[in-house]
Amino acid sequence: MKLGIINSAFDQVGMEFSEGIRHIAEIGFDTVDIQTEAWDITTERKQEIVRVCEENNLPIVSVPVCSLGIADFADPVRDFHVQRTNKFVDFARDIGAHNVLLVLGEYMWQQEVIPPQMQWDWAVESTRKIGSYAANNGVEIVLELEPFKLSIVNSVEKMARFVDDVASPAVFANIDVSHVVLAGDSPESMRLLDGKAHHVHFSDCDGKVHGDLPPGDGVIDFRPFMKVLKDMDIDGVLSIELEYCPQPEMIVEWVRKAFTETARLMDEVGLRS
Q1: N or C end: fewer C-beta atoms under 10 angstroms in the chain?
Q2: Could you tell me the domains of the chain?
Q3: Which residues fall within 8 angstroms of residue 41, CB to CB, at 6 or more apart?
Q4: What is d(CA 19, CA 66) in angstroms, rounded to the nearest whole number?
């Protein structure tokens, strides 16, 4: 697998886009994922993103989007989230990205009032529509497990079932290692996604709450997870996801530390190619 990062690590501290990309290349990453809003992005902005990444020899792999209303009870709301996610498919296609990383929403009203199965079915139907549009545009959709109590897909077992229910040749899973830990799932559970996962997110946490810390700054023992990822032979990229650096002025050092530790772990098991 290649080793990448989401550029949001630098964007969140207010760093200008091209400067962040230059740091990502200088640190040694193989690829980059681009986080932005695609709904009203201009052609000029897309061209700038492509130009800057090409100048720094960084292939663009993934484009994240949160579509939290994808299982809303109102048809127009679901339709809007499908349309907005399709804008990210267009964006991914236009900048040469391989996939759109889709974050689904949560069950409404504590799974009361509206039957949970109905909301699950709405999410499946909406994702299937997005998958069809993505397939027609040469882009994949990868779904992220969110380890929160009411998230529609909040465990490895549910992710495997959701991908099967969608049954689209363009829809796969993303494996976020820290989210798997926070969901209480084991490294071995990830084998349920063998053949279903095409992207990996990598970060650390305190074992209790969502963190997106550099590997080594939390409590996760990554080695068992790395061995399973190696066995799964995923056709994709391992992208570091970092959020909210506690010392914004140290962001470059923060990212460099995450790169160094992740590269070491990947090399230990022969995962990086």
Answers
A1: C
A2: 2-269 (3.20.20.150)
A3: 87, 91
A4: 25
Which residues, 6 or more positions from 177, have their beta carbon under 8 angstroms from its beta carbon? Answer: 200, 201, 202, 203, 220, 222, 225
| Closest of 167, 169, 166, 193 to residue 180, by C-alpha | 193
The 3-state secondary structure of 5-45 reads EECHHHHCCCCCHHHHHHHHHHHCCCEEECCCCCCCCCHHH
Surface-to-core class of residue 176, CB atoms within 10 Å of its CB (0-12 exposed, 13-18 middle, 19+ buried) = buried
Strands of 140-144's sheet in order across: 31-33, 2-6, 237-240, 197-202, 171-176, 140-144, 99-103, 62-66
DSSP assignment of 174-224, as one string? EEEHHHHHHTT--GGGGGGGTTTEEEEEE-B--SSS---BPTTSSS---HH
How does pLDDT run across 172-181, given as a tens digit for each residue? 999 999 999 9
For 117-132, what is each residue's pLDDT tens digit? 999 999 999 999 999 9
